[in-house]
Amino acid sequence: MAGAAIVACCCAAMPLQARNVPLDDDGPYSDDLTEAAQPAIAGATGSDATFNSLFSSWQRMDNGGIVSAPRQAIYIPSGRPVEKLELTSNYGVRADPFNGQARMHKGIDIPGPVGTPVYATADGIVSRSERSSGYGNLVAINHGNELETRYGHLSRLLVSANERVKRGQLIGLMGSTGRSTGSHLHYEIRIAGAAINPLPFVTGSERAMALNSTPPVAMGGPRPSDEAKIK
């Protein structure tokens, strides 16, 4: 199911408030390699199945199938978090760039110069805007119903915790803070705390361009002169 179709199911109100995010899973990598083979939603076996399951679950909420606390809006991340979308690392098991060991990579890595603008991919409330372990400077946005996006390795944070943001709003600048070998954005989508593959949420033409791009992997981090330009 296309990302645009899912966006149509979103409600009009903003999420209720920022949630406190557990800090025990605070980095772009995991040693649990089984995460790559486990779909985030029960019954999903691939990208389309994940979308179908998500849509069905939220549709049941609208139809009264789930009765719980006051209904939250759900804003689905779609499109790209940067102007130019390329990939240096995909979601899934890959070699750790620091020690060469196989580890689970929880998102996608998008390269670019230090200071490249980074944008929110959906409306929501900033749950975190801080220095955070392997992520370096991190912005996390709560989009409702335990749906979250994370933007890591930023050189500058341009939003604050509990701030309401809109899709397309500038939230930070790309960098190489934290556990990073060069200037890039680490982009994640999580559901109920579990990282899922972000690529299906990127609209069709942009996703195809990213998959077909073969940029050189950034190594060594930004130069001091590059960092000085954004201070």
UniProtKB/TrEMBL annotation:
One of its GO terms (molecular function) is metalloendopeptidase activity. InterPro entries: Cell_wall_metabolism_enzyme, Dup_hybrid_motif, M23ase_b-sheet_dom. Keywords: Hydrolase, Signal. It holds the Pfam family Peptidase_M23. Residues 212-231 are annotated as: Disordered. The keyword Signal applies. Residues 103-198 form the M23ase beta-sheet core domain. It comes from the Bacteria. The keyword Cell membrane does not apply. This is Murein DD-endopeptidase MepM/ murein hydrolase activator NlpD.
